Amino acid sequence: MDGPTMRDTYDVHDTARGTEIARWIALLAILALPGCSAVTGLFGDDENVPEPAKLEDFRPAVKVKTLWSRRATSGGGDRHVELHPVVAGGRVFAAGHDGDVAAYDPFDGKRLWEVDTGVPVSGGPGAGSGLVVVGSSAGDVVALDGADGAVAWRARVSSEVLSAPAVGERVAVVRTVDGKLFGLDTANGERSWVYDRTVPVLTLRGTSAPVIAGDVVVAGFDSGHLVAVSLADGQLLWESHVTAPTGRTELERLADLDADPVVSDGVVYVVTFQGRVAAFDLGTGQPLWERDLSSHAGIGIGRRLVYVTDEQGHVWAFDRGNGSSLWRQDGLERRQVTRPVEFGDYVVVADFQGYVHWLGTGDGRFAARVRTGGSAVRAPAVAGETAVYVLGESGRLTALTLP
Fold it and tell me: 402 with 64: CB under 8 angstroms?
């Protein structure tokens, strides 16, 4: 059944699928620990784990056109890092874990340049002010000239970078897994400032990307805190608890804010793992509304709505003004669905089999479905002016558009 269900709240402990979610929580948490490379037999008989939802047939409401598709990067390797593409300066930039970064024409997919950075890329790319910036699993930060790919500068930060750097006019901001934000001078990569927070004992593997909004940097942390610091000097402007860790065990107290915050019209929208989706005033940090929800896939913003993919793979739509739930699409349950992105009158998500799903913004019903290749899509799609760009785990970059 492709139709959404109307439901206003989501509580992981009140669902019949609570056992399954607890299993995934434990697995994800243990994989975040250093040195844990195998978890064989942790949860007993794998046959008891429910299967991902089967895709049901439906009558397409719109025909999606593939503008172009090509092998763009080496992909994420076996680390499952989410190296999503980015659109900036009239170009599409993509990076692979092996260190390759490339620029493409957004209309025909022509490769404009390609550079091997020589570092194992694990975060990015981020783009702005004529630069393309990536971070590595070894704490390297490399900035490339967006015009020709020439290396502008290299820098070092304290630990692994798992999210895209934010690039402002004078400062690039890099988030590291040890709870730090680094402000680097975009002219030469020299360190301008550092903001530091304590990391909880147990966290999920991943960090949210910092967001630059004017002269403010917004960032989420593994403790469930959302902070705003000055872009100029890194001084704290405000902090808010999106969700406070609760429970008797460290697993129950996980409240990571790993999904990227989104800033629009003076409002910051965030969602946490085992916590809430919420909206905060950008200037003061005061909460505007909140709803119980758990997600590490992320949040997307449209003209009127906030979209969230929850832990079960359900896609939700909330009113931007008051947080009321408008629809929920359940047809992609357990399909490891990516963060939603709005494109025209549709919401676009992808899944672990490489399918890209188009949902109507008004009711959440399936409108179209295409497959970009055989590999999983872990990173969220990115919307440009005329197309949606999807980067598969194998490194295939595809541009999709509507008639």
Answer: yes
Q: Measuring CA to CA, which residue among 364, 301, 297, 306 is closest to residue 335?
A: 297
Return the residue matching tokens 């930039």. Answer: 93
Distance, CA of 336 to CA of 329 (rounded, Å): 14
Peptide linkage before 125 cis (omega within 30 of 0): yes
Q: State residue 200 phi and psi, 5-degree precision.
A: -60, 160
Structure tokens at 233: 């000097």
**Which among 206, 235, 234, 202 is positioned nearest to 220, based on CA atoms?**
206
Mode of pairing for the β-strands spanning 341-343 and 382-383: unpaired
Q: How far apart are CA 131 and CA 110, in angstroms?
A: 20
User: Across the beta sheet with 396-401, what order do the strands follow?
Assistant: 65-71, 396-401, 388-391, 382-383
In this prediction the pTM is 0.85
**372 and 356 Cβ atoms separated by less than 8 Å:** yes
**Which pLDDT tens digit goes with each residue over 260-314?**
999 999 999 998 877 789 999 999 999 999 998 888 788 999 999 999 999 999 9
- As a whole number of angstroms, the distance between CA 342 and CA 149 comes to 30
Please list, residue by residue across 108-117, b when 16 or more beta carbons sit within 10 angstroms of its beta carbon and e when fewer do: ebeeebebeb
Query: Which residue shows structure tokens 């629809």?
Result: 327
| Residue 219 · residue 207 · CB < 8 Å | no
Q: Which tokens is 129 given?
A: 């002010």
User: Residue with structure tokens 């915050």?
Assistant: 261
Q: Where are the domains of the chain?
A: 12-401
Rounded Cα gap, residues 379 and 361, in angstroms: 21
Nearest to 209 by CA among 278, 271, 163: 163
Question: What's the longest Cα–Cα distance across the chain?
Answer: 55
Q: What is the DSSP letter of 67?
A: E
Which ranges in 195-325 belong to alpha helices (H)?
none
**Residue 275 in tokens:** 């916590």
The CA distance from 367 to 354, in Å, is 17
What is the H or E stretch that residue 264 is in? Answer: strand 262-264
Q: Which CATH superfamily is domain 12-401 in?
A: YVTN repeat-like/Quinoprotein amine dehydrogenase (2.130.10.10)
**CA distance linking residue 46 with residue 56, whole number of Å:** 25
Per-residue pLDDT of 93-126, as tens digits, reads 999 999 999 999 999 999 999 999 999 999 999 9
Which residues, other chains included, contact 128 with Cβ-Cβ below 8 Å and sequence gap of 6+?
A: 88, 166, 167, 168, 169, 172, 212
